[in-house]
């Protein structure tokens, strides 16, 4: 039978999920297998890894099943957190990722990534149906699912495009809800971190009943959750709430590639020497003069015994390119980023089903939800290349007096702008999802045929409001201050006529309210996105005839889908002369603006729209080949094919072929499957409205040594993209409940995934670096020679240019022992692990080499990742101990580690002095006490040992941790009460 993990609420490597309420089964894996063998409640088995619906069918694709009890034991405010712990899920996004972003719209978005292939290559379903995307990338937000009604979650760790269509390259995550719930159940939970922040409240309630002699079934549920998040630390290295692990770890560049020493050095307490908290003259004869909070000049402490060279480039002797070590760190901005986004969600769900007869039902569901998040990117709005006149009215006289003797009338200046209120980003996502359908079975041609058909309409409305956003053009006018008639004013009369108020950027003087209103208008960047999804789907499955080995099963279906989005934005970011005057009352014109848009420091949203449609059909067969229980065992072959026509790129075909063999060896099964899978370009990749982001500390490699400049990074779409295609192969062996040890289940599976025509975009820095190194076809995408940074830009656009290859092994095992040491109850051991042997990305460009990121702990795919669980449960209480671990790794596999006699450092093989990034081991504990059959109290402690994150060095002063792998929250306590009447 199926290889089932026999543990509370979890069945791993299993093809036959339960048909009944999972919460009642302390050994659910075993009970599922028994239900199959006895033909009881599990007679109609729905297999997420396949479209075949047949009793006793064993799909060849490994599937991990997480039951409701395991979700409850983990006691998370969002079920996403529990599922994302699975070792095969790597690179999933959540409330601790994307927090330094202004324009992405993904802050607080909970979405899965299987195999480290990204959220866009994992298909997430609700009751086997697609869900409208919560972002223009098309990925849904798990926060918007009806979480209290989840009966189980099926995680298919293999390609499933032939069965489910586009996006299922890495696999499928399918949430199954309880459609027959009766009674009243609820959950109230609270939590807080060890640092007194991230306060959490969760309240859930569901009611189910029936009418008309149990033929009309009504279920409604509602949820409210509030996660307070973890705010920013500020400037320097002081973390929020007393966290002391931030060290400004940086990969500093010596700028020398061929002197026998490593080009890059790993250093902590790095200090950017282009700016300080209250201002620094960073080039020319006055280089090194900084200003304190009171505006008084002093000689800046560069660290590393650095001495300013006082040249036009702003070089510092004894330091690295752009950085010194130690010294005055007060201006660093990395820890000033929100560590965990605040999240508040509301969720309402209802299902009404009517039984036409005992076998057929029509139903309708509605899901209305809202998720509000907020975050702060880096504090202030750093400027590194300002040109300041020596006649500036705010410049201290002692500094101004040094200009003439040094033959200058202006100087270059950098400042963190700590005097400005920090940028705040407020994304809000609202989902409206409606489904109507029918499901059941009928008799035709002498056999039973199961069917399901539905129509879904979903809408997602995303609004992003940004507060305290700087307008750089106004800023330049405001800092250019002169004295007229004894009053300090903005130099430009045109700017003064449009409200310009002068500000003093020499020190910590707070600007006036009028000046702040001019620099950071109350109506900041704004984006409104309406996204819709319409799906019509029909599927049938039956066993029309038999061979000598058993019944032949067939499934077939058709599906039509249309995706659409439209985005509008404010005229300061999008452009004033667009013909849209609806915002002009809130966003008045200003002669200093660029009427083409891009006037904000960040958050320059653009208007756009796009749509595509998909029509597809599939056929799947399961053919028994062998049925000899007393001899060779039993075997089957499973095959499927799908034809898909995309309105944007034509027709593509996907397929899979696999099989299973229950060998004569006791409990041993062998399985294998290979498939061709696809991912079509999403709305964002095809029709992305251009977004501009100001990058104040961009490295220009064309100067010698490389210099730091400011640029505008523009992200745009590409309508000529075609679908990605993948070849996915898996093979494994399963030991399931052998007679000599019936509590044991073990599985080992090998996987190999190759994706070509990968849709990807080079980062702005990558693009410029490759041009400088000779990849000339990229050189038309940027301009870096604007005076003072004006006009500098890099265009970032996706292309079908890359390929990805990854391979590795999945391991799953459990052992269940009833009445351990004579005690009542059950003790269960469970382990899941994934070993990634390689994860190679080839950009497909001349003079570039493939990069293997397996084991690079600065990314998403550590070499090893484990999840171990021990549970003891009885009628009165249960206890849980869980260990999460991933292996030591490196910053990047491309680096060549050396101390002396280093080879020449190149872009593909840069030399470095240290390349080790420690893994992490986390322990979680929890327990539940039952007050009778209906009420229980529980507790949970995550990261019991309060393990700090390992630094993940940047090449700038960003947050030096990797939230995709490391826990950045710290120890968290949760308690709650559940009831079920």
Automatic annotation (TrEMBL):
Its placement in the membrane is given as: Multi-pass membrane protein
Query: Where is the region Disordered?
Result: 1-22
Q: Which residues form the TonB-dependent receptor plug domain?
A: 58-172
Sorted alphabetically, which InterPro entries does this protein's record hold? Answer: Beta-barrel_TonB, Beta-barrel_TonB_sf, Plug_dom, Plug_dom_sf, TonB-dep_rcpt-like
Q: Which residues form the TonB-dependent receptor-like beta-barrel domain?
A: 528-944
Principal subcellular localization = membrane
- Gene3D superfamilies from the UniProt entry: TonB-dependent receptor, beta-barrel domain, TonB-dependent receptor, plug domain
- What are the subcellular locations of this protein? Cell outer membrane
| Keywords from the named record | Cell outer membrane, Membrane, Receptor, TonB box, Transmembrane, Transmembrane beta strand, Transport
Q: Which PROSITE patterns match?
A: TONB_DEPENDENT_REC_3 (PS52016)
Signal peptide, first to last residue: none
- Annotated family: Belongs to the TonB-dependent receptor family.
Record-given protein name: TonB-dependent receptor
């Amino acid at each position: 039978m199926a290889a089932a993990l026999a543990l509370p609420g979890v069945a791993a490597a299993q093809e036959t999920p339960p048909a009944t309420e999972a919460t009642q089964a302390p050994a659910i894996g075993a009970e599922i297998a028994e239900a199959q063998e006895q033909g009881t409640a599990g007679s109609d088995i729905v297999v997420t890894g396949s479209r075949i619906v047949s009793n006793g069918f064993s799909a060849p694709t490994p599937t991990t099943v997480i039951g409701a009890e395991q979700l409850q034991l983990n006691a998370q405010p969002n079920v996403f957190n529990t599922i994302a712990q699975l070792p095969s899920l790597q690179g999933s996004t959540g409330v601790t990722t994307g927090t330094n972003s202004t324009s992405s719209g993904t802050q607080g978005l909970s979405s899965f990534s299987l195999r480290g292939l990204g959220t866009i290559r994992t298909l997430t379903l609700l009751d086997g149906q697609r869900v409208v995307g919560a972002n223009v990338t098309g990925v849904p937000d798990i926060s918007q699912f009806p979480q209290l009604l989840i009966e189980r979650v099926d995680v298919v760790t293999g390609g499933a495009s032939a069965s489910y269509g586009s996006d299922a390259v890495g696999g499928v995550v399918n949430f199954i809800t309880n459609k027959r719930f009766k009674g009243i159940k609820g959950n109230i939970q609270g939590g807080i971190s060890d640092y007194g922040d991230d306060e959490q409240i969760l309240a859930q309630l569901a009611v189910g009943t029936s009418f008309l002699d149990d033929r009309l079934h009504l279920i409604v549920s509602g949820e409210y959750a509030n996660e307070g998040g973890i705010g920013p630390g500020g400037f320097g290295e002081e973390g929020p709430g007393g966290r002391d692990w931030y060290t400004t770890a940086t990969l500093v560049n010596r700028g020398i590639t061929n002197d026998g020493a490593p080009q890059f050095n790993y250093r902590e307490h790095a200090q950017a020497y282009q700016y300080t908290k209250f201002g620094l003259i960073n080039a020319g004869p006055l280089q090194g003069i900084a200003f304190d909070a009171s505006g008084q000049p002093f000689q800046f402490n560069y660290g590393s015994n650095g001495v300013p060279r006082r040249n036009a480039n702003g070089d510092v002797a004894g330091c690295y390119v752009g950085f010194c070590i130690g010294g005055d760190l007060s201006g660093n901005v990395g820890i000033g980023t929100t560590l965990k986004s605040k999240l508040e969600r509301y969720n309402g769900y209802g299902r009404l089903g009517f039984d036409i007869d005992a076998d057929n039902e029509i139903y309708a569901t509605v899901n209305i939800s809202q998720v509000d998040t907020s975050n702060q990117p880096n504090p202030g709005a750093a400027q590194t290349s300002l040109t300041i006149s020596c006649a500036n009215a705010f410049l201290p006289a002692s500094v101004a007096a040094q200009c003439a003797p040094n033959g200058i009338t202006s100087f270059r200046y950098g400042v963190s702008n700590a005097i400005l209120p920090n940028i705040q980003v407020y994304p809000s996502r609202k989902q409206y999802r409606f489904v109507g359908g029918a499901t059941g079975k009928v008799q035709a041609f002498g056999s039973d045929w199961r069917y399901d058909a539905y129509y879904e309409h979903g809408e997602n409305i995303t609004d992003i409001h940004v507060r305290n956003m700087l307008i750089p053009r106004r800023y330049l006018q405001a800092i250019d201050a002169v004295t007229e008639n004894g009053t300090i004013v903005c130099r430009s009369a045109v700017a003064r006529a449009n409200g310009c108020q002068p500000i003093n950027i020499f020190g910590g003087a707070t600007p006036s309210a009028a000046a702040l209103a001019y620099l950071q208008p109350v109506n900041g960047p704004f984006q409104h996105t309406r996204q819709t999804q319409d799906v019509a789907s029909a599927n049938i499955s039956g066993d029309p005839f038999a061979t000598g080995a058993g019944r032949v099963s067939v499934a077939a279906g058709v599906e039509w889908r249309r995706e659409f989005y439209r985005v509008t934005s404010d005229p300061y970011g999008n452009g004033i002369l667009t013909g849209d005057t609806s915002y002009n009352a809130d966003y008045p014109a200003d002669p200093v603006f660029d009427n083409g848009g891009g006037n904000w420091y960040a958050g320059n949203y653009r208007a756009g729209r796009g749509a595509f449609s998909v029509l597809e059909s599939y056929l799947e067969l399961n053919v028994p080949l062998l049925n000899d229980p007393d001899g060779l065992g039993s075997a089957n072959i499973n095959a499927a094919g799908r034809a898909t026509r995309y309105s944007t790129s034509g027709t593509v075909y996907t397929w899979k072929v696999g099989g299973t063999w229950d060998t004569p060896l006791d409990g041993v099964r062998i399985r294998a499957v290979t498939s061709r899978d696809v991912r079509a370009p999403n709305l964002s990749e095809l029709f992305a409205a251009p977004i501009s982001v100001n990058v104040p500390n961009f490295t220009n490699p064309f100067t010698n040594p490389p210099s730091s400049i400011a640029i505008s990074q523009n992200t745009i779409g590409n309508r000529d993209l075609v679908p990605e295609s993948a070849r996915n192969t898996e093979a494994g062996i399963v030991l399931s409940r052998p007679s000599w040890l019936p509590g044991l289940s073990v599985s080992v599976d090998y996987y190999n995934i190759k994706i070509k025509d990968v849709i990807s975009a080079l980062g702005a820095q990558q693009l410029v670096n490759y041009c400088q190194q000779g990849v000339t076809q990229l050189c038309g995408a940027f301009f870096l020679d604007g005076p003072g940074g004006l006009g500098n830009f890099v265009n970032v656009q996706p292309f079908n240019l890359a390929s990805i290859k990854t391979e590795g092994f999945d391991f799953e095992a459990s052992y269940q022992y009833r009445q351990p040491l004579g005690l009542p109850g059950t003790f269960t051991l469970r382990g899941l692990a994934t070993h990634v042997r390689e994860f190679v990305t080839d950009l497909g460009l001349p003079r570039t080499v493939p990069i293997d990121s397996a084991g690079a702990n600065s990314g998403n795919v550590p070499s090893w990742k484990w999840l171990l669980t021990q549970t003891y449960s009885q009628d009165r209480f249960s206890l849980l101990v869980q260990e999460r671990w991933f292996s030591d790794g490196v910053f990047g596999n491309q680096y060549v580690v050396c101390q002396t006699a280093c080879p020449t450092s190149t872009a593909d093989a840069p030399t470095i002095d240290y390349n080790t990034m420690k893994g992490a081991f986390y322990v979680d504990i929890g327990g539940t006490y039952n007050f009778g059959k209906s009420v229980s109290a529980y507790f949970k402690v995550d990261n019991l040992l309060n393990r700090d994150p390992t630094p993940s060095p940047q090449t700038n002063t960003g947050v030096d941790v990797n939230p995709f792998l490391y826990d950045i929250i710290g120890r968290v306590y949760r308690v709650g009460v559940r009831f079920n009447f």
